[in-house]
Amino acid sequence: MKLRKVMIIGVGNVGSTSTYTLVNRGICEEIALVDLNKELVQGHAKDLMDAASYRPSMLKISVRESTDCADIDIAIITLTGGLASKSRTEELAGTSRIMKTLIPDMMKHGFKGIFLIATNPCDAITYQVWKLSGLPRHKIIGTGVWLDTTRLRRILADELQIGPQSIDAFIVGEHGDSQFPVWSHSSVYGMNLNGYERVPLDFDALGDKARKMGFEILNQKGRTEYGIASTIAEICHNIFTNSHRALAVSCVLDGEYGYKDVAIGVPAVIDQHGIKKIIQLDFNAKEKEQFKHSVDVIKGYIKAI
Ligand SMILES: NC(=O)C1=CN([C@@H]2O[C@H](COP(=O)(O)OP(=O)(O)OC[C@H]3O[C@@H](n4cnc5c(N)ncnc54)[C@H](O)[C@@H]3O)[C@@H](O)[C@H]2O)C=CC1
Ligand SMILES: CC(=O)C(=O)O
């Protein structure tokens, strides 16, 4: 049986917490760590091997160069050229510069797997990775709005006093300010959200709360890590189990929703090869406008790369 191998590129807060989450969920058999900071990466590898020793099965934590990637199934991008403090786009210039050498070098060294991108601004970097890799678009996934969707479900769960897994609500668009919840398709078991508890919900306020949650956490603790680490682990789990579950992630569009040359958060069916199918929702007029705005915003960032 083939061993499942993941590479984490950038073992800072997000990369190390993601590795710890992958270890504890037993999602793969090897995690290869890559970072420019050689002391940090060696230290994390030893600490994480201690954690892995408590797992019932063999799990290898290795330290590699990113070019040692020919046998990797999923390469997870969690590096940054400089962390944002107010807007995710602050990272665009520094990080896109790193990508211009990192991705072609990996491709020259035989990378054949799936790229999973968490680095911000997530949608623009996802698109850039697709362009630089030359891989088919189904092999490129940005974590995108899946974390925002999870946040929205948690906020709604609090409001409605029902488990978040029972709420079918989600966010589409940019992992950033132009994202929006698709209220026209949100329900509890097919029941309109206002009908569930028979109390009118303040939909604008709920969407705002989810949209602002990332920076609310960032302002309080200086970084966000656990939420995105669980998002990364969840996407890897869905790939490795060939789940065919639909998640709202950043996908490269090629005509879906009437757009191309952009990566943006939309619901997509995940299988062992990556994105199996992009689900095309029937947006109402307001949502069509909001989606167009989000596409325009992301295209603006892509143009600046
Ligand atoms: N998509 C999402 O929902 C979230 C995304 N993020 C993003 O994740 C990224 C990482 O955030 P943190 O871990 O907090 O940053 P961090 O600064 O703690 O870690 C970044 C790591 O990348 C390494 N690095 C830089 N250039 C590299 C290169 N060329 N090759 C290998 N390693 C390199 C650094 O040495 C550092 O260890 C940021 O872009 C951040 O905005 C963070 C939280 C949530
Ligand atoms: C930092 C970030 O992108 C988030 O937690 O949503």
TrEMBL record:
Pathway: Fermentation; pyruvate fermentation to lactate; (S)-lactate from pyruvate: step 1/1. PROSITE patterns: L_LDH (PS00064). Keywords: Cytoplasm, NAD, Oxidoreductase. Substrate binds at R88, N120, P121, C122, D123, D148, T149, T150, R151, T224. Its EC number is 1.1.1.27. InterPro entries: L-lactate/malate_DH, L-lactate_DH, L-lactate_DH_AS, Lactate/malate_DH_C, Lactate/malate_DH_N, Lactate_DH/Glyco_Ohase_4_C, NAD(P)-bd_dom_sf. It is an enzyme of class 1 (oxidoreductase). GO terms for biological process: glycolytic process; lactate metabolic process. It is found in: Cytoplasm. CDD domains: HicDH_like (cd05291). Residues 147-303 form the Lactate/malate dehydrogenase C-terminal domain. NAD(+) binds at G10, V11, G12, N13, V14, G15, D35, T101, A118, T119, N120, T143. One of its GO terms (molecular function) is L-lactate dehydrogenase (NAD+) activity. It comes from the Bacteria. GO terms for cellular component: cytoplasm. It holds the Pfam family Ldh_1_N. The active site is at H175. Belongs to the LDH/MDH superfamily. LDH family. Homotetramer. Catalyzes the conversion of lactate to pyruvate. This is L-lactate dehydrogenase. It comes from Zophobihabitans entericus.
